[in-house]
Amino acid sequence: xxxxxxxxxxxxxxxxxxxxxxxxxxxxxxxxxxxxxxxxxxxxxxxxxxxxxxxxxxxxxxxxxxxxxxxxxxxxxxxxxxxxxxxxxxxxxxxxxxxxxxxxxxxxx
Length: 109
Known about the structure:
The protein has 5 helices and 4 strands; from the N terminus they run ααβαβαββα. It is of the alpha+beta class.
């Protein structure tokens, strides 16, 4: 998230970045501050995983913890792209380089 916030190519895409996690907002502020997250308005606390479930993200969950999933929502509110990089069947990657996210967003917008 931090690298995407700092990436000029991502910033030029005219998309909003929102991080959704089951953690409490206070925990996000503490951890996010250490990580360098600048805007906590872009963090959604999804304690019951309702939002994650509605986007189909929980299919890659480990227990009740969602993975590292990217969801691109188009102007009509439809899912234009959905990719979980952390799942073993998707490569098991826990960090995705910004240029890969930029490539996917450009391809699916």
